[in-house]
């Protein structure tokens, strides 16, 4: 796990740039890191653990995984990784999956499931005394959410790099907002970061996956399309929750 190569420096540099550009981290922050076990969240907690060593503002990290109660994975691999990073880690058991899939039998469960998981994460972070939550949304997620909003909601909108939740009195930050998905994948492999395969029964069948596939086709004729979309978001300031 060395930092003396281009990809490692790029990911850490982009993480630090996002943190500084949007004033994500302040002295004394207790940051809950949402960990799904996927490449994004596992790479982000690793990058934040490195940033913590030299960032001028001192802060602490606490990993949290929200279990859905359906097709849950064994978290032992994450437990071992977090122990290696010397970061406290909490697994929160819920019945979200059972409610969404078995009781309500939602035809389009992704939005409800995401909202409930986010609520459970917020509540656990507050219970643990954290004042901020780090989510691992990356640059591609920003673009895909923008496209989803435009096509299915009729507006130009995506999530914000920093969001203060009034009702919860907690701030959500997204330190990976400048990082490209394929760079994160390479970063994960290069540093032997463990990854848990998504247990979600709808993985790969969502509207977001449709947008991913559509963008892949569009890139074939316009390689700059993602950069252009991300640039337009930055210039227009169309961030939001």
Walkthrough of the structure:
It is a single chain. This protein is an alpha/beta fold. Helix content is 49%, strand content 15%. The strands form two sheets. The protein has a six-stranded mixed sheet with strand order 3-2-1-4-7-6, with helices on both faces. A two-stranded parallel sheet has the order 5-8. α2 links the parallel β1 and β2 (59-67). The two termini are 35 Å apart.
In short:
This protein has 241 residues and is of the alpha/beta class.
List the helices and strands and how they pair.
Layout: H1 6-21, E1 29-34, H2 39-54, E2 59-67, H3 76-85, E3 89-93, H4 96-103, H5 110-127, E4 132-134, H6 139-152, E5 158-159, E6 162-165, E7 170-173, H7 181-190, H8 207-221, H9 225-236, E8 239-240
Distance between the termini: 35 Å
Summed up, the helix count is 9
In percent, how helical is the residue content? 40-55%
Question: From N to C, what is the helix and strand string?
Answer: HEHEHEHHEHEEEHHHE
| CATH class descriptor name | Alpha Beta
Structural class: alpha/beta
The CATH topology label is Rossmann fold
Spans of at least 5 consecutive residues with low confidence: none
What labels would you give this structure?
241 residues; alpha/beta; Rossmann fold; six-stranded mixed beta sheet; 9 helices
């Amino acid at each position: 796990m060395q930092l003396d190569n281009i990809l490692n420096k790029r990911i850490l540099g982009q993480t630090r740039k996002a943190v500084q550009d949007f004033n994500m981290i302040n002295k004394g922050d207790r940051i809950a890191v949402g960990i799904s076990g996927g490449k994004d969240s596992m790479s982000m907690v690793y990058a934040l653990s490195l940033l913590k060593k030299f960032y001028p503002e001192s802060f602490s990290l606490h990993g949290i995984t929200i279990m859905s109660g359906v097709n849950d994975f064994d978290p032992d691999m994450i437990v071992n990784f977090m122990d290696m990073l010397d970061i406290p880690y909490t697994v929160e058991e819920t019945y979200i999956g059972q409610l969404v899939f078995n009781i309500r039998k939602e035809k389009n469960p992704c939005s409800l499931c995401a909202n409930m998981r986010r609520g459970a994460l917020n509540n656990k972070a507050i219970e643990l005394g954290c004042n901020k939550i780090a989510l691992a949304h990356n640059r591609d997620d920003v673009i895909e959410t923008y496209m989803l909003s435009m096509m299915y909601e009729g507006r130009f909108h995506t999530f914000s790099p920093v969001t203060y939740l009034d009702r919860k009195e907690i701030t959500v930050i997204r330190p990976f907002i400048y990082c490209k998905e394929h760079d994160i994948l390479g970063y994960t492999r290069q540093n032997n970061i463990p990854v848990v395969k998504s247990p979600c029964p709808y993985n790969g069948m969502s509207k977001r996956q449709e947008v991913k596939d559509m963008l892949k086709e569009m890139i074939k004729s316009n390689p700059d399309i993602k950069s252009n979309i991300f640039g337009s978001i930055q210039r227009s300031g169309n961030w939001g929750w």
